[in-house]
Design a protein that fits this description.
Layout: H1 2-32, H2 43-48, H3 50-55, E1 57-62, H4 66-69, E2 75-79, E3 84-88, E4 93-100, E5 105-107, E6 112-113, H5 123-132, E7 135-139, E8 142-147, E9 150-156
Antiparallel strand pairs: 1-2, 1-9, 2-3, 3-4, 4-5, 4-6, 7-8, 8-9
């Protein structure tokens, strides 16, 4: 019986030592940042992703020339949590995906679009410009979409009012 008790005690001690060893390795791994780096870091994580909250929501194209939009203003809505966008070309609805970092923005080439006939709307140029975008800037409340650092289009949070005939 004493042998049985000694074997159980040894087994218990070995199990406790093994548990302590595994716990120590896990704690050391967390302190080295291996798994801690995957966890949000509060305010620091927010500051690193400031551009997501700045981009989120609806934007309207400025200026929207009548020959491109037939008087209807293209709009785009960014859902940064899903990395999806939706909006209009000035006529047809369009949606798709996008990728963004603190300095780059790329629209996915697999866009979904309705196919209404839109006389006077240059949708092909509008969509090609979206696909060429590789960056962005925020200036004075505008979202400026860029290609190789050059402005391609300018967007506002406020919907522009179309000019009335004779007021230009």
């Amino acid at each position: 019986m004493e042998n049985n008790m000694t074997a159980k005690l040894k087994s218990f001690i070995l199990t406790a030592l093994l548990f302590a060893l595994v716990s120590g390795i896990r704690a050391q791994k967390d302190s080295n940042g291996d798994t801690a780096a995957k966890k949000p870091r509060g305010e620091t994580a927010f500051k690193e992703k400031w551009y997501l909250s700045a981009l989120e929501g609806e934007w309207y194209l400025l200026p929207a020339p009548d020959n491109d939009t037939a008087g209807r203003i293209p709009e785009i809505r960014f859902d940064t949590q899903q990395s999806r966008f939706s909006g209009t070309t000035g006529c047809n609805r369009v949606s798709g995906s996008f990728r963004i970092t603190d300095s780059s923005l790329h629209f996915g080439d697999k866009m979904i679009m309705t196919r209404m006939f839109c006389p006077g709307v240059n949708e092909t140029a509008f969509l090609q410009n979206l696909l060429r975008i590789d960056g962005y800037q925020f200036k004075k409340g505008w979202l400026i979409l860029t290609r190789k650092g050059l402005e391609v289009s300018r967007w506002s949070r406020k919907k522009p009012q179309p000019e009335k005939p004779g007021t230009a």
